[in-house]
Specification:
The chain is α/β, with parallel strands linked by helices. The N and C termini lie far apart (49 Å). The model has no long low-confidence stretch (mean pLDDT 88). The protein has a five-stranded mixed beta sheet with strand order 4-3-5-12-6. The chain has a three-stranded antiparallel beta sheet with strand order 10-7-11. The protein has a two-stranded antiparallel ribbon with strand order 1-2. α1 crosses α4 and α2 crosses α3. It contains ten helices and twelve strands. It has three domains: 70 residues, Orthogonal Bundle (Arc Repressor Mutant, subunit A); 102 residues, D-Maltodextrin-Binding Protein, domain 2; 101 residues, Periplasmic binding protein-like II (D-Maltodextrin-Binding Protein, domain 2), CATH 3.40.190.10.
């Protein structure tokens, strides 16, 4: 059996469709479909039941998927054991997190971590989607929601709080709101693409305005929190932003300080098979210490 085809098969089994698996693998839907068809032909068995609502594993598909997960897990553990130094953490460490957290808080602190552990080879993947840790798309994930995949170890890192922010230039030009009702006279930037909201509460600002029967001008809709941050920094309007993004940004000012949006928990997540990795252990402890110093 071809390893590339097995990797594609596992992605399809987890996603439940060729299209979603293709998005994860950066392949076209047709390329994924061809790989699965070729694998089924080589095994002379059907691995998926095709339905209008998606794909369901056959009994043979379930057996193969479990075997693939076990094999890749053992390979991941073997790789970790081979590359891990007995004296110091050493080797590759692939970390994934959201674009917002990675760009504004994590990346500026990576240099300090690598100065402490120069033999670790860090790769940082900023992606608002959830990469498959069991397939070694990453070793560690920092996520703003509990993991959905099984066989993952998770530790709560911090609670993320959100408030309303804008720039001094915007307030000078448009006035400062002193109550939620005043938002009707202001421009706001919100999260777009309702079907892809990272959390159901991300547009709590709009819910707040509806509760007060106010209709502020939605000057921009962006499907990325970091994009909203950049728009606000340009003086475009007011938006809800996580405190970790703006704590060290002197250009942004918190407004309506008595209002606080719904908080979310951030988690440090990694596969069970890497539970003895020194690289992961030192990175986790580094993050815990730096987050505690940030007083989130």
């Amino acid at each position: 059996m071809d390893w590339d085809k097995l990797r594609v098969f596992h992605a399809v089994a987890e996603a439940g469709s060729f299209t979603h698996a293709g998005e994860t693998l950066k392949l076209s839907q047709s390329a994924v479909s061809r790989q699965i068809s070729a694998l089924e032909e080589s095994l002379s068995t059907t691995l998926f039941h095709r339905h209008a609502r998606g794909l369901i594993l056959t009994e043979q598909g379930e057996l193969l998927n479990q075997t693939v997960k076990d094999v890749f897990g053992k390979l991941a553990m073997t790789e970790a054991m081979l590359t891990e130094s007995k004296e110091r953490p050493k080797g590759p460490l692939k970390v994934t997190t959201t674009v917002a957290f990675g760009s504004t808080w994590l990346t500026p602190r990576i240099r300090e971590f690598l100065d402490l552990y120069p033999e670790i080879e860090m790769t940082l993947i900023l992606d608002d989607g959830q990469l498959d840790l069991s397939m070694r798309q990453a070793d560690v994930a920092i996520r703003m929601a509990p993991p959905r995949q099984p066989d993952l170890i998770q530790r709560q890192l911090m609670k993320v709080h959100v408030h309303l922010y804008t720039t001094r230039d915007y307030l000078d030009a448009n006035g400062t709101p002193v109550a939620a009702e005043d938002l009707e006279n202001h421009k706001i930037v919100i999260f777009g693409e309702e079907a892809r909201l990272p959390a159901s509460s991300v547009n709590w600002l709009m819910d707040l305005c509806k509760a007060y029967k106010r209709s502020p001008r939605q000057v921009l809709r962006v499907n990325n929190i970091y994009g909203i941050y950049r728009a606000v920094k340009s003086g475009m309007g007011i938006a809800s932003l996580p405190d970790f993004m703006v704590r060290e940004d002197k250009d942004l000012i918190r407004v309506l300080t008595d209002l606080e949006g719904p908080s979310v928990d951030a988690y440090f997540v990694y596969p069970e098979v890497l539970r003895h990795s020194k690289r992961i252990a030192v990175f986790r402890e580094f993050l815990i210490k730096r987050i505690s110093e940030s007083h989130f």
